[in-house]
Write a structure and sequence with these properties.
single chain; three-stranded antiparallel sheet; eight-stranded mixed sheet; Aminopeptidase; about 375 residues; alpha/beta
């Protein structure tokens, strides 16, 4: 029997077919668009991750003077650990404000002891350490310079013919106030992250106290500013320390000698302890880090700063050969534009003990007094 399809049935069939086709096309477009958006998001996340890593590495390179000494593979392997151990680790050791102020006020009390002036008729010997190479690119007499800037160094630039109007007033501060050293029996503490603590009795601030003590003994007037600049956040330390230094110089604008005391920033190398034996004592090696205007910031004083460092190191090499490592010259300014005799002095590294760094200050102060007297 032949079934006759009427027009109404045909229309119903076409409508159903059209609806099905519309649904199929819509679903196809939806999944295609979703897949494209997912791919775009993945690509964007990868790009943002790369940008973030580049920004953080640039911040580290600016904030930590010697971070370039960390090898590329080492940086890749421990990059997140470095960030966690600087930015966030300090927050785990937060102390009440009153306790922090107490640490600032009491740290100088630890150095109220008999002053033993550094001897000059002693032999020196650098203790071999192959952890980090002390390479250099330029030299002036006995002074070696590792030029990592875009500046070409000439004899005129390096000649230490700097003339200071005021050699009696000295400012000491710390951009990275919480940098500390390997704990010892005499100076035992609980470090946070990569050798850091807010207790100023165990940081570079304590080293600054020692330098202040000896310089005062030689007749200098020393302002030792122990303001925290890397706590509770590490990034932005140089911006904060610049405010501190400007305020200090407003109080005593005739000050020309400005020392920013650091510990060598190779925090991941816990066994790195650059040491020199002076007589029967072991002292941490010292290093000048000098900035330039190579990074684009105005810095009319960089050549004078370099001359000042060369002048001190020239005298140190005469009195205690090996006390200083090669001077490092960088493109970053490091706030050294504030004065014609402003420098970073890195005292020891993470593997050194505080005792070794305090001993260094006895000899450094003697060198300074003999250089600018």
């Amino acid at each position: 029997m032949i079934r006759v399809l009427n027009l109404k049935d045909i229309i119903k069939y076409l409508v159903k077919l059209t609806i099905i086709l519309i649904i199929i096309v819509s679903l196809t477009r939806y999944f295609s668009t979703a897949k494209k958006e997912i791919n775009n998001q993945i690509k964007l996340n990868l790009e943002l991750s790369t940008i973030r890593e580049g920004i953080i590495k640039n911040v580290l390179n600016f904030s930590i003077p010697d971070v370039k000494n960390i090898g590329k593979s080492k940086m890749d392997e421990s990059f997140i650990e470095i960030i966690l151990n600087t930015e966030f680790a300090m927050s785990q050791n937060i102390k009440p404000k009153a306790n922090i102020e107490l640490a600032q006020n009491n740290s100088i009390n630890e150095v109220e002891e008999e002053i033993q002036e550094a001897k000059t008729d002693v032999t020196t010997e650098v203790i071999p350490d192959n952890t980090v190479s002390n390479r250099f690119t330029d030299s002036y007499g006995s002074v070696q310079i590792r030029n990592e800037s875009d500046k070409e160094l000439t004899e005129e630039i390096l000649r230490p013919d700097i003339q200071l109007n005021n050699t009696k007033d000295i400012l000491i501060f710390h951009t990275h106030t919480c940098e500390s050293y390997t704990s010892s029996e005499q100076y035992y503490y609980e470090p946070t992250g990569n050798f850091r603590t807010t207790d100023l009795n165990f940081t570079v601030s304590r080293v600054g106290d020692e330098l202040q003590k000896y310089l005062n003994n030689y007749g200098y007037t020393v302002n030792h500013d122990k303001t925290y600049h890397d706590y509770p956040a590490y990034t932005g330390s140089y911006n904060r320390s610049l405010i501190t230094v400007k305020n200090d110089l407003e109080i005593k604008p005739e000050t020309e000698i400005v020392f920013d005391l650091h510990r060598d920033a190779i925090g991941s190398n816990s066994n790195y302890a650059p040491t020199v034996k002076i007589g029967d004592e072991y002292a941490a090696q010292i290093m000048f880090v000098i900035g330039t205007d190579g990074g684009g910031l105005t810095h009319p004083n960089w050549q004078q700063n370099l001359k000042f460092a060369v002048k001190i190191q020239e005298k140190a090499n005469e009195m205690y050969p090996g006390l200083f490592k090669p001077i490092i010259l960088r493109n970053s300014r490091y706030n050294q534009h504030v004065s014609k005799a402003a420098t970073i002095i890195e005292v020891g590294a993470t593997g050194n003990t505080l005792e070794q760094c305090l001993t260094s200050m006895k000899y450094l102060s003697k060198v300074i007094s003999e250089t600018i007297k």
